[in-house]
UniProtKB/TrEMBL annotation:
The keyword Iron applies. It comes from Buddleja alternifolia. PROSITE patterns: FE2OG_OXY. Its cofactor is L-ascorbate. This is gibberellin 3beta-dioxygenase. One of its GO terms (biological process) is response to molecule of fungal origin. Residues 208-309 form the Fe2OG dioxygenase domain. Transmembrane segments: none annotated. Pathway: Plant hormone biosynthesis; gibberellin biosynthesis; Hormone biosynthesis. InterPro entries: DIOX_N, IPNS-like_FE2OG_OXY, IPNS-like_sf, Iron_ascorbate_oxido_reductase, Oxoglu/Fe-dep_dioxygenase_dom. The keyword Ribosomal protein does not apply.
Length: 352
């Protein structure tokens, strides 16, 4: 039987310290457990880089109905591994509805949210970021992960009125999936894929793909300079489509430039290349190293939709690349490698 995405994520057992978020409602000072120093980060040399404050080039905003959309997407992927899209056919009222549900969820009392806690070897539900176990300090963040139906955990949160939440999450995931299909096709065209690749990717990747929806909350923080909202990481699958509310916080790392802010653009959705796309493109498209910094006065919410091929399928550089730089890997194996080795996982697949 085919492996589902949640099964692929289920095999890492964590301690509860790495699952239960802080009760942010009751905290007025940054606790030692959440106060980071450079030494607490794996890539401390990157943390040491200053965030740029002067005028910086910004991530391209691409109108999906533009006649040159393939070229625009191709050059944004190559330069940034990231772009924002407008004319994406996802209604803003749906986006805001999902955001409002996320706000309602995270505003619940801590003892209620704990009822939907991710289990120690589980993939879905309420909890800290999965990457937390790699760091000695905890993040100023709480999340809720959905893969497929949200019913099981929504019932734990709202035993009598979970339906509206679930309907909204279902609608949003459907919309995200079809937008991700569309964007994947544009990216594959931009890569100039040949017939053989097209057959492989269009049948498997497009029609049996899998996705996960991650709701993120970063409450206002009493000492944002010493806290981290989400530690630096790359996303594992092919693409991520992100909505951020009107509160800054997301930053991407650019060689030679350091950390650069990616402020929200009203009505646009942000798309970023993940590790599997980096493999497929044989390194032409960079996987985006990003983090979130908390804000002293404002509460940031974001919704990230992670999109990947079926979990048992094989990902390898497209056959048009004469000198593949990665060995083929199944999605499931890659998720396992990432759970064990975090950012070193990609290097373990390098063959040249
Ligand atoms: O909140 C954000 O802007 C980023 C979220 C993110 O990177 C993730 O969920 O992987
Ligand atoms: Fe991410």
């Amino acid at each position: 039987m085919a492996t589902t995405l949640s099964q692929a994520y289920r095999d890492t057992t964590l301690q509860l310290k790495h699952i239960i978020p802080l009760d942010f409602h009751s905290i007025h000072e940054l606790p030692e457990s959440h106060a980071w120093t450079q030494a607490d980060e794996i890539s401390s040399e990157k943390r040491a880089c200053q965030t740029r404050v002067e005028e910086e080039p910004s991530i391209p905003v691409i109108d999906l109905s533009s006649p040159t959309v393939v070229e625009l997407v191709g050059s944004a992927c190559q330069r940034w591994g990231m772009f924002q899209v407008t004319n994406h056919d996802v209604s803003l009222s749906l986006v805001h509805d999902v955001e409002a549900h996320a706000q309602r969820l995270f505003a619940l009392p801590a003892d209620r949210k704990i009822k939907a806690l991710r289990s120690p070897n589980g993939a879905t539900g309420y909890g800290v970021a999965r990457i937390s176990s790699f760091f000695s300090k905890l993040m100023w963040h709480e999340g809720f992960t959905i893969m497929g139906s949200a019913v099981e955990h929504a019932k734990e949160l709202w035993p009598n009125e979970y339906e509206e939440f679930c309907d909204s999450m279902d609608n949003y995931q459907k919309k995200m999936k079809s937008l991700a299909h569309k964007i994947l096709l544009l990216i594959l065209k931009a890569l100039g894929l040949d017939e053989e690749d097209q057959e492989m990717t269009s049948s498997a990747y497009l029609y049996q793909s899998e996705g996960a929806l991650q709701l993120n909350s970063y409450p206002s923080c009493p000492n944002p300079n010493r806290a981290i909202g989400l530690a630096p990481h790359t996303d594992s699958l092919l693409l991520t489509i992100l909505h951020q509310n009107d509160t800054n916080g997301l930053q991407i790392f650019q060689d030679g430039m350091g950390w650069m802010s990616v402020p929200p653009v009203s009505g646009a959705l942000l798309v970023n290349v993940g590790d599997l796309m980096h493999i497929l493109s044989n390194t032409r498209f960079p996987t985006v190293y990003h983090r979130v910094v908390p804000n002293e006065t404002r509460h940031r919410f974001s919704m990230a939709y992670f999109y990947g091929p079926p979990t048992d399928s094989i990902v390898a550089p497209l056959s048009k690349f004469q000198f593949p730089r990665f060995r083929p890997v199944t999605v499931k194996e890659y998720i396992g490698l990432k759970s064990k080795h975090l950012e070193k996982a990609l290097h373990l697949l390098r063959i040249s």
